[in-house]
Amino acid sequence: MNGIHDLGGMHGLGPVLPEQHEPVFHEAWEGRAFALFASTFVFAGYTVDEFRHAIEKIDAAHYLQSSYYEHWMIGFEAVLTKRGIVTSNELDARVARLRKAGH
Fold first, then answer.
1. What's this model's pTM, rounded to 2 decimal places?
2. Is the model's pLDDT at 25 over the cut of 70?
3. At what angle do helices 68-82 and 88-100 cross, to 10 degrees?
4. Burial of 46 (0-12, 13-18, 19+ CB in 10 A)
5. Sequence-separated (6 or more) residues with CB below 8 Å from residue 60
6. What are the extents of the domains in the chain?
7. If one looks up domain 48-103 in CATH, what number appears?
């Protein structure tokens, strides 16, 4: 597959400049997103390929405007809704509650 998510392997886009002294996670929620992979992978029974495909289906503009772990969260939402473990309405309600609580 050759899409927006493959930019790192394309020529002519300049060097990748790693962040000096980059932390493992920039924000606490990223660590929780990382932990979700193993737990949802086992619980929901999806494959790594299915998860990657969910990320590869993100709209190009949204993909470029979001962070690495935001891609993961979108992938989790896609595979978990596809498998009927959570609904879009449940996700929207949870986001609304978190916003209301100031998170």
1. 0.81
2. yes
3. 140
4. buried
5. 3, 4
6. 48-103
7. 1.10.472.20
CA distances from residue 100 to 28, 30, 73, 93, 97 in whole angstroms, order as listed: 19, 21, 20, 11, 5
Q: For residue 48, give both structure tokens.
A: 């790594």
With tokens 């986001």, the residue in question is: 95
Is 72:55 a contact under the CB 8 Å cutoff? Answer: yes
Whole-angstrom Cα distance, residue 59 to residue 40? 23
Contact 32, 26 (CB under 8 A): no
pLDDT digits (tens, 9 = 90+) for 38-77: 889 888 989 999 999 999 999 999 998 999 999 999 999 9
| Closest CA relative to residue 73, chosen from 93, 89, 95 | 95
Q: What gap in Å lies between CA 9 and CA 3, rounded to an integer?
A: 11
Reply yes or no on whether the pLDDT at 2 is more than 90: no
DSSP 5-44: GGGGG-TTS----PPTT--S-SSHHHHHHHHHHHHHHHHH
